[in-house]
Design goal:
The protein is built from eight helices and seven strands, in the order αααββββαβαβαβαα. It is of the alpha+beta class and about 200 residues long. The strands form two sheets. The protein has a five-stranded mixed β-sheet with strand order 5-2-3-6-7, sandwiched between helices. It has a two-stranded antiparallel sheet with strand order 1-4. β2 and β3 form a beta hairpin. The N and C termini lie far apart (about 45 Å). It binds guanosine-5'-triphosphate (GTP) and zinc ion. Guanosine-5'-triphosphate binds near residues 87, 89, 160 and 166. Keywords: GTP-binding, Hydrolase, Metal-binding, Nucleotide-binding, One-carbon metabolism, Zinc. This is GTP cyclohydrolase 1.
């Protein structure tokens, strides 16, 4: 099956298959999938997975299709966008916040602020690693808005590092992706990072 890691959304969610897989998993962990408390669980998990991985079937370019000409050619930054994603190694949650900023291109075209949060959500709702999530958000903005610069910073706690394995609850992973002016100019980058870290 083809999945949409960069652009086009091509795959579909197969609910009966997901339900059968969850039932198998329950048996594999030594549970009785037919006991009262578990009998609806495969269907529930399938519905939850459909929601958690909805971003596989959505096209990021559509999210940024609406743009406005406001003639603004300086930083636009949306800070502290809550995000919940799923670690592709263990299929457990990693969650935290995303900060997304860009400097519009020469045309001064901007997108709706909510679209930046929608873009974060779309890519978060795929099996992910934090680095790819960060990069994909930045690259989608570059692709659709042709901005002077983009900066994406993501800070997350990974439950695979907290509830199992190395067991370090509270450890925060920070990733960033900078493009254009934020890459070439330490001053622009410093300004954005300063605004991102304000209020902390
Ligand atoms: N770089 C990166 N690593 C991640 C992310 N999410 C989880 N991981 C790591 O993926 C790695 C998978 O390592 P493996 O050795 O294959 O799996 P494991 O035996 O379950 O590893 P432990 O978590 O160390 O017990 C672990 O080190 C995780 O911490 C992420 O978003 N980015
Ligand atoms: Zn993990």
């Amino acid at each position: 099956m083809t999945v949409a890691h960069q652009g086009e959304a091509t795959s579909t969610f197969d609910a009966p298959r997901a339900e059968a897989a969850v039932r198998e998993l329950l048996i594999a962990i030594g549970e009785d999938p037919d006991r009262d408390g578990l009998k609806d669980t495969p269907a529930r998990v399938a519905r939850a997975y459909e929601e958690m991985f909805a971003g596989l079937h959505e096209n990021p370019d559509d999210v940024l299709a609406t743009t406005f000409d406001v003639g603004h050619d300086e930083l636009v930054l949306v800070r502290d966008i809550p995000l919940y994603s799923t670690c592709e190694h263990h299929l457990v949650s990693f969650h935290g916040v995303a900060h997304v900023g860009y400097i519009p291109g020469k045309s001064g075209r901007v997108t709706g602020l909510s679209k930046l949060a929608r873009l974060v959500d779309l890519y978060a709702k795929r099996p992910q690693v934090q680095e790819r999530l960060t990069t994909q958000i930045a690259d989608a903005i570059v692709r659709r808005l042709d901005p002077r610069g983009v900066i994406v910073v993501i800070e997350c706690e990974h439950l695979c590092m907290a509830m199992r394995g190395i067991r370090k609850p509270g450890a925060v992973t920070t990733t960033s992706a900078v493009r254009g002016q934020f890459k070439s100019s330490a001053v622009s980058r410093g300004e954005a990072l300063d605004l991102i870290s304000r209020g902390r």
